[in-house]
Amino acid sequence: MVRQPLVLGAIGLSCIGIALGGINTTKPVKKVNYAEHVAPILNRSCVPCHRPNEVAPFSLIGYDNAKKWARMIAKVSDSRLMPPWKAEHGYGEFQDENRLTNSEIATLKAWVGTGAERGDKKKEPKLVLPASDWTLGQPDMIVSPSKAFKLDAEGDDVYRNFVIKTNSDQPIWVKAMDVHPGNRKVVHHVIVFVDNNGMSDKLAAKTTDGQEGYVSQGGGVGFLPSGALGGWAPGLRPIMNAQGTAFKVNPGARLVVQVHYHKSGKPEEDLTKVGLYVAKEPIDKEIHLAWIMNFGLNIPAGESDYKIARNYKVPTDVTLRFVLPHMHLLGRKMEAHVVLPDGSEKPLIKVNDWDFNWQLMYAYKEPIKIPKGSTIVVNAQYDNSANNLRNPNSPPKRVTWGEQTTDEMFLLVAGYTRD
Description:
Layout: H1 5-18, H2 34-45, H3 62-68, H4 70-78, H5 102-113, E1 141-143, E2 149-151, E3 158-165, E4 172-180, E5 187-195, H6 199-205, E6 214-215, E7 227-232, E8 245-249, E9 254-261, E10 268-270, E11 273-278, E12 285-293, E13 298-299, E14 306-313, E15 318-326, E16 331-339, E17 345-351, E18 362-370, E19 375-382, E20 399-400, E21 411-418
Parallel strand pairs: 8-12
Antiparallel strand pairs: 1-11, 2-10, 3-6, 3-9, 4-8, 4-11, 5-7, 5-9, 12-21, 13-20, 14-19, 15-18, 15-21, 16-17, 16-19
């Protein structure tokens, strides 16, 4: 996951901008303009992130903003760096696949060749933005610590667990969850766990630093949680789960909002908020999360093609609904498929160009039935050489599993319902 997503994103795009001379702008494919041809593409595939208070470092709302970035838009779309959709097309079928067609990429390049003409302003499509700062609209519930957490300037990353009482005498069925990091410079990622037994209260009561919550080690919350609602990482956008499915929060349960902080070099404050969208319809299936991990990561210094795998035996009939791959800075590829009891295989996901700036959740167009006795196979590849520009260590050193940004992880989160 990214240490400073907005800063790193801006630096990365600026570097790309230096090399924009490679675009052929002298022979446009066709006569195009912003109003009729370009605006529909940008509004659909770019503006959801490239707008105020979102993860992208600049806005692409409206003609003036689009024209300012026209050459860069053409360059990063032609290289398929943007939009940031990392799952390989055809290896699993996903909802809202945010990929541009070859024709759309050609249109953006041709637009640069016209001098980024606007066309008839009256023909520009109306842009419909969310009614609130929350991607899915105003949440039914917003939970957060009561005051900002104060983070020291330097030192190791911090896993702070904020304990929040739900105060409900009825089960809460959560259809979707969104996270608003209070300070994106230091919030590395967020996971929301469920505690039905009050264990988190006992740990928080032992805190002596005068701030809310408690610190845990190893990436966990210090006890075996009752479940989880999911999380947030740079680039991750919330989804509304299918009709009749939701996460369950029992009456009286605690939500443990774990925020992974990476220090910025100066004192910082953060007040992260979590928005919950509650089901309005009857729920037939409870969503669970499987965490398919391999703690055996041991990547030698200088190794450019380190491979490791994990097999997960499915204990009961399930329906797989979404997956979320996760690695750190050395990760290059991750692939998962399922081997069915009859020996046949189904693809689940393949990422051939892992980018820690974009941690995406991939929801299937059609949920995948996986019978008991099947095996989910996850393969990953890492580059710990000096040639990996994302390598945080210079010179490279041996890297193993760990919670620090400079450590590594092997994780596939799978959302499923039991059949």
